[in-house]
């Protein structure tokens, strides 16, 4: 495995430069929005790091799937995967390298986001408000990061299975949005059967429950249906798909 090769190959592209630049600008803007404006809208006049990171999770929910799908499925879409397999014949080794490289890049982006959320919260709370709240940092780690981890796993599964940048992005970004919308509509209409069906594929809610320790066996079903099964099928397709 050579994840460093896949990481360098991705970062050297013009598309990655544009995407990462726009991602950094979006993260900076949302960190400022969450951390600096809180004292003006909160009754206590404080700035809470968890709330700042919740605001930051909005762009991250788009940035993470884009990075992951482009790194795992991009070479299939532009047909350069043929050259990669000629230079590195072990298909599963190439796949593992891409997964490690994508995960490492996402971890860097998330770590940067946490640092900016903490900095914006401190500036907003201590210099512009009545104080900064960092006591919720443990809650941030146990809930928000678990939800982002679920987004990472789902995007990896879609990139590996679909092996198409466009289709992978549509599914990795669109499906969570559709499911969350369906969950809200189901709650409004009160149908228990439909609610259970939506709950069975609601990976975000399942991740939140897992993070807070409130999950039961049912919360493992979305992980099985949306991550484990697509990944297994995708690995098989990755191994057998004809190139060219």
Description:
This is ABC transporter permease. The chain crosses the membrane at residues 18-41, 53-74, 95-120, 140-162, 169-195, 215-235. Keywords: Membrane, Transmembrane, Transmembrane helix. It comes from Brachybacterium ginsengisoli. The protein is mainly alpha-helical and 244 residues long. It has one domain. It has ten helices and two strands. A two-stranded parallel ribbon has the order 1-2. Helix 6 (137-162) runs antiparallel to helix 9 (203-212) and helix 6 packs parallel to helix 10. The longest helix is centred in the middle third of the chain and has 37 residues, at 91-127. It is globular.
Assembly state = single chain
Distance between the termini: 23 Å
* Portion of residues within helices: over 70%
Rounded Rg: 20 Å
Strand order of the largest sheet: 1-2
Uncertain ranges: none
Note the total helix count: 10
Proportion of residues in extended strands: under 5%
Number of domains: 1
Q: What is the H/E string?
A: HHEHHHEHHHHH
Number of E strands: 2
* Largest β-sheet summary: 2 strands, parallel
Could you report the average pLDDT, rounded to the nearest whole number?
88
Topology of this structure?
Elements: H1 3-11, H2 14-41, E1 47-48, H3 49-77, H4 81-87, H5 91-127, E2 132-133, H6 137-162, H7 165-189, H8 192-200, H9 203-212, H10 220-240
Parallel strand pairs: 1-2
Helix pairs in contact: 1-5, 2-3, 2-5, 3-5, 3-6, 3-7, 6-7, 6-9, 6-10, 7-8
Protein name: ABC transporter permease
Transmembrane segments: 18-41, 53-74, 95-120, 140-162, 169-195, 215-235
Keywords: Membrane, Transmembrane, Transmembrane helix
């Amino acid at each position: 495995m050579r994840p460093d090769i896949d990481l360098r190959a991705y970062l050297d592209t013009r598309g990655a430069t544009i995407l990462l630049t726009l991602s950094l600008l979006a993260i900076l803007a949302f960190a400022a929005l969450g951390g600096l404006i809180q004292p003006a809208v909160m009754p206590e006049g404080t700035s809470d790091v968890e709330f700042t990171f919740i605001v930051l999770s909005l762009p991250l929910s788009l940035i993470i799937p884009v990075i992951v799908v482009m790194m795992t499925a991009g070479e299939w879409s532009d047909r350069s995967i043929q050259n990669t397999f000629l230079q590195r014949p072990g298909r599963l080794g190439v796949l593992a390298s891409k997964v490690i490289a994508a995960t490492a890049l996402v971890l860097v982006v998330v770590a940067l986001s946490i640092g900016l959320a903490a900095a914006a919260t401190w500036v907003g709370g201590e210099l512009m408000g009545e104080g900064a709240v960092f006591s919720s940092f443990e809650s941030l780690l146990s809930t928000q990061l678990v939800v982002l981890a679920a987004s990472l796993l789902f995007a990896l599964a879609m990139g590996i299975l679909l092996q198409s940048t466009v289709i992978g992005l549509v599914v990795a970004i669109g499906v969570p949005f559709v499911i969350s919308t369906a969950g809200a509509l189901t709650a409004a209409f009160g149908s228990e059967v439909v609610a259970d069906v939506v709950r069975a594929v609601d990976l975000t809610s399942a991740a939140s429950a897992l993070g807070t320790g409130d999950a039961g066996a049912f919360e493992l079903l979305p992980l099985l249906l949306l991550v484990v099964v697509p990944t297994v099928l995708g690995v098989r397709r990755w191994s057998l798909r004809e190139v060219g």
